Amino acid sequence: MGPALLPDNLARLRKPEALKVVAEGRTATQMPAFGAQLGKDEIAALVDWIYSPVEPPPRWTDDDIRASRIQHVDPATLSDTPVFDADPMNLFLVVEGGDHHVSVLDGDKLEPIHRFQSRFALHGGPKFAANGRYVFFGSRDGWITKFDLWNLKVVAEVRAGINTRNVAASPDGKHVAVANYLPNSLVLLDGDLNLVKTLAATDRDGKKSSRVSAVYDATPRQSFIAALKDVPEVWEISYTKAVEDIPTGFIHDYAQKEGSFIPGYLNPRRTILDEVLDDFFFTQDYAELMGASREGVGQVVNLDIRRKIANLPLDGMPHLGSGITWEWIDAGGKPRTVMASTNLKAGEVTVIDMKTWEVIKRIPTRGPGFFLRSHANSRYAFVDSMMSPQAKHILQVIDKQTLEVVREIVGEPGKTLAHVEFTRDGRYALASLWEDEGAVIVYDAQTLEEVKRLPMRKPVGKYNVWNKITREEGTSH
């Protein structure tokens, strides 16, 4: 469920800090504290073992990827229209971590219509393609699954790595990118999950290797954007052939192509930074990304000129990957596009002006939170405090104009209430009772009253087709 504990993956975690992590747990992860079960000598022995080189080192080659591929269904046998009556654009996928299944919900009737077995520990959220027909899942142990949502069938699977962060898909479903921690690679697949190529995640000089911390689709740019966890670089990988070549080394004349170039198609165009990025958020036109490291260093990167253009005044550990945007009217009546993000270490939601990059407000919350969600048709944004032992059962509701918490939805103390996702029209907000014997709880998005609950096995995430494929401003992309 976590990254492979190998010395190469722990270069940024010193042994004294590792001792503390084993004893006290790790913020914003599933790593619990073991200080009550293990003595200091036992913890020290474990850390020494974890930091010892593994011989032989684990490998996962292109041949391994190709050999792992499984074709579950012949695509020629699949229907070109949905096999159910529900609106295919208002379906939800609910990832149930309790027993590793995915449920398909009818977003109009708010009832399940299908449930299927998934791979272990899905991570990074499913990615939709081909108008929501195909869904691509990634598991922590490297398996990529292609699911036909119209036919409710798993089509194909392939193991793209040993330890995987997330997956991204082009809107037409013809290109898939996989970010790996182990091996240090970005794997590119076609829409049928056949290997196209593997990009070794190294710096520009090829000397330092890195885990890939995240990869996302940038639809308007027809490219994937990837951040490296151990190297201060952001990569842009174009999946359109109508893209200029990439210069490498010294170029005498760009127009005459005098110098070294590589094809722009499916090769990394590098942006060199001073600080690494663990996570990031795109502006609406995808020309810039707002990124932050695990240490809380925030920066704005322009993807066209390929350099940092501004600092972000962030504290703690912002979770920009789950940020949202909306139009906010300031005191002078002027509309301003703002972005808001939770924080994994501090009890606040940070609201940032996306033109000036200044912090408009820090909204105090009950505790560190993971998810922030809204919808263009809702005046409210929902935020959890799931990193707080005392307040993880409380959802707070923020008025997007006053920037104040106006309501609290209180669940059962000791149980986690988190991850809101809206229906296509924004009428209902669905939250997760994040327990093994949990539920998806449906709230009226206007009155904020509970409408119904659907029993689920630890529903760790919910994803609405329409909101995802239209890049709705109130959900993560």
From TrEMBL:
It comes from Thauera humireducens. GO terms for molecular function: electron transfer activity; heme binding. Pfam families: Cytochrom_D1. Transmembrane segments: none annotated. InterPro entries: Cyt_c-like_dom_sf (IPR036909), Cyt_cd1_C_sf (IPR003143), Haem_d1_sf (IPR011048), Host-pathogen_enzymatic-act (IPR051200). This is Cytochrome C oxidase Cbb3.
